[in-house]
Amino acid sequence: MSDEYTTLIEQIRHHDRLYYEHDAPEITDGQYDALLNRLRALEAANPALIRADSPTQKVGGRVADGFAKSVHGVPMLSLGNAFAPEDFAEFCARIRRFLALEDTALRFIAEPKIDGLSVNLLYENGRFIRGATRGDGTAGEDITHNLLTLPDLPRRLAAPCPARIEIRGEVFMTRADFLAFRATQEAALAEREARRARGEKLGSAVQVPVNARNAAAGSLRQLDAAITAARPLKLFAYAMGEGSETPAATHGEWLDVLRRWGFRVNPLSTALDEAEAPDFQSRIAAERAGLDYEIDGVVYKLDRLDWQARLGFAGREPRWAIAWKFPAEQATTRLLAIGIQGGRTGALTPRAVMEPVFVGGVTVTHATLHNEDEIARKEVRIGDTVVLQRAGDVIPQIIGPVLEKRPADAQPFVFPTLCPACGSHAVRAGDDVVRRCTGGLICPAQTVERLKHFVSRRAMDIEGFGEERIELLHARGWLLAPADIFTLHERRAELEALEGWGRLSVTKLLDAIATARMPPLERFIFALGIRRIGEQNAKLLARHYHSLAEWRVKMEAARIIGSEAREELGVIQGIGPAIAQELVDFFDEQRNVAALDALCAHVAPADAPVADAVSALAGKTIVFTGTLEKLSRQEAEARAESLGAKVTKSVSKKTDIVVVGADAGSKAAKAAELGVQVATEAEFRAMAGLV
Ligand code: IVH
To answer: Model confidence over 567-614: pLDDT tens digits?
Structure first.
């Protein structure tokens, strides 16, 4: 297929450029779709030959935006938060438990947490090859051309350096640069408005950034690198991603290596013992206002890299680092109204509407009030002046009313007992603080929220479906269930006729939909929006069942209490009884099954990869029993799972290995009885590659 395949890719790229960059298409949409469909057909017939740079492989819309997708060598994850000394102490205690350390004091490197944009920089044989944004953590946008304009970015790394290494850091704008930049943008905007008033030609749009972070983000995501070059961007390096070798034994040494290679490393980065952290935190908080860049906390990273490697990650967060955030910024404003928002699981959340106020770097008009008990506890009334708080990327919160300023006509809020969207009863079950709409699948608010979740970045990742668009398409009756997304192309003409849509954006959207048909299984399961099945649980399910077909068969079977499938579900590490019940409830509802069937006519999720087959533990079912000496139980289990093993709690015929520690009880006996392989802790460590 290769000749036709290569030619097709080139043709499609050529037409993409004409269409998106030059706005001068040479072929009709129908002809373009025919090319793309032919390419998809070839790829479906020869999946092994699919090129990473094929137009079908670009995540929706990003081709159109002009940025290619760039997959990170190892994922770029986030950080857990601490807000108080107790949180930090608990973090240290967790590390000690995991590593089975007694009273050893932990050594950390503390680094100010820069409020910018994280980037991943790939170097091969000392040369800068590629740079990308964080994106969804797994893949970001290739912004190499823009990063090359940064004076802080070393093009070459002096030897010795690993053959291949990813370096991570934060791109930011200093406060002074931001203020100057904002002033020029404001002037440009005023000039543009004046031209508009005179009826003159306008030229390109002008954006006035609200804060330094947005200014840095906007500057990095420019198609024209000349624009980025003119923006005053800086880069602090602070971490390593993938590497063919690790050029240091501690994080502190690693920062030295980065300095030697010519990276800017935050000069406030400091090595300290855990007991010194609270003082350091206060010191940096005091210096914060005087710094020339925005920070929102301090990141504490365990200094020893071998310990970092053993600790690994829990979900999306490393166990060896934490972001200790500064207290949130506060402001006062007036509470104008309280609205009710329906969520995808029926939860009704009160939402405050306020007079706009600038706090924590942005203008805020809405805040969550959590639930009706919170409103009662805080005693806020409509018309009150309220204290509002916002920290970093967290949703703004109302702290409480300023009672001295309460007007005589301030109104207490009465929580509705009927769902404002569908009129169904809204009830609180047992001691649930949340009032929920009982309308289920008939409630339009729930449907719309489920659709928003379905297309969201971490789920099906279909770009071009803003919240308003979903609401509009739903209101028109064109989008009532997720499966309808995949027949939207039949309404192309109607979509293009909608105000503010147009051919270009409809093409982008339909393209994004077409490329979303083969999501990884875990993202598909997450997208279904089953209660309690967040990203982490979806991943556990995908890893355990591997294929959509297998998962569905087993879920249907698990509806029967006492069935083998139910038992299997019960022993997946991390899936407790409450989660299992939610899955069973979901599959008990025929309308859910019908919606899933409808979806499966259009979507073919990719099977979850079988973990590292070279490991002796891959695919094995393991039970740990007794006390391990050198490893905590948690570390042993995490390690086994990362090597592709299934960790279960009880010994059965299906168990492959029982790892027996000190004082093992009946499980060791059961293993012997069933003839299951028994391993000592040392043997397990050998199998798991732990020395
Ligand atoms: S380390 C797994 N160090 O904070 C380690 N992150 O919430 C992850 N950030 O996406 C990153 N300054 O954008 C690290 N000195 C620092 C940082 C830092 C800012 C940002 C970064 C990351 C986010 C995590």
So the answer is: 899 888 778 888 999 999 999 988 899 999 999 999 999 998 765 545
Domain boundary (306, 325, 344) is at 325
SS3 65: helix
CA of 322 to the centre of ligand 1 (A): 9
Considering the domain architecture, whether residues 94 and 161 belong to the same structural domain is answered as yes
Q: Is the CB of 78 under 6 A from ligand 1?
A: yes
Name the token pair of 183. Answer: 């002033």
Please name the residue that has the structure tokens 């916002």.
Answer: 390
Q: Provide the pLDDT for residue 618.
A: 83
Q: Looking at the domain assignment, is residue 405 inside a domain?
A: yes
CB 464 within 8 A of CB 505: yes
Pocket test for ligand 1, best of 113, 280, 317 (most atoms within 8 A of CB): 113
Q: Of these residues, 58, 113, 325, 646, which one is catalytic?
A: 113
**DSSP-derived secondary structure for 433-454:** SSEEES-GGG-HHHHHHHHHHH
For position 64, what pLDDT does the model report?
A: 33
Cβ-Cβ contacts under 8 Å for 579 (sequence gap 6 or more): 532, 533, 537
Handedness of CA 351, 356, 359, 362 (dihedral sign): positive
Is residue 82 lining ligand 1, measured as CB closer than 6 Å? Answer: no
- Residues near 226 by beta carbon (within 8 Å), at least 6 away in sequence: none
Asked whether 138 and 72 are in contact (CB, 8 A), the reply is: yes
Measured from the Cβ of residue 5, the count of other Cβ atoms closer than 10 Å reads: 18
CA distances from 192 to 187, 195, 204, 238 (A): 9, 5, 9, 40
| pLDDT value at residue 318 | 94
Query: Does 20 map to a domain?
Result: yes
Pocket lining: 239 vs ligand 1, CB cutoff 6 Å: yes
Whether 79 lines ligand 1, by a CB cut-off of 6 Å, is: yes
The last residue of one of the domains, among 279, 306, 325, is 325
Whole-prediction pTM: 0.67
If asked whether residues 154 and 294 sit together in one domain, one would say: yes
- Classify residue 608: in a domain, yes or no: no
Ligand 1: distance of its center to the CA of 533 in Å? 26
Q: What is the pLDDT of residue 60?
A: 32
User: Which among 298, 301, 299 has a CA at the least distance from the CA of 252?
Assistant: 301
Per the domain annotation, does 263 fall within a domain? yes
CA of 261 to the centre of ligand 1 (A): 20
Ligand 1 atom closest to Cα of residue 239: 1
Give the number of domains in the chain. Answer: 6
| Backbone angles phi and psi of 431, in degrees to 5 | -100, 20
Tell which residue, 248, 234, 90, has the closest CA to residue 170.
234
Residues in the chain: 691
- Pick out the chain residues at pLDDT < 50: 59-64, 613
Tell me the CATH number at 410.
Answer: 2.40.50.140
Q: Is the CB of 114 under 6 A from ligand 1?
A: yes
Q: What is the distance between the alpha carbons of residues 383 and 403, in angstroms, rounded to a whole number?
A: 11
Query: 548-557 and 577-588 are packed helices; what angle lies between their axes, rounded to 10 degrees?
Result: 90
Q: Is the CB of 323 under 6 A from ligand 1?
A: yes
Predicted local distance difference test score (pLDDT) of residue 368: 86
Judged by DSSP in three states, 405 sits in helix
Q: What is the CATH number of the domain that holds 443?
A: 1.10.150.20
Residues 160, 261 within the same domain = yes
Same domain for 663 and 634, yes or no, is yes
270 C-alpha vs ligand 1 centroid, how far in Å? 16
What is the domain range of residue 377? 330-414
Instruction: Answer yes or no: 630 catalytic.
Output: no
Bridge partners for 621 per DSSP? 646
Check pocket membership of 270 for ligand 1, CB cut-off 6 A. Answer: no
CA 394 to ligand 1 center in whole angstroms: 16
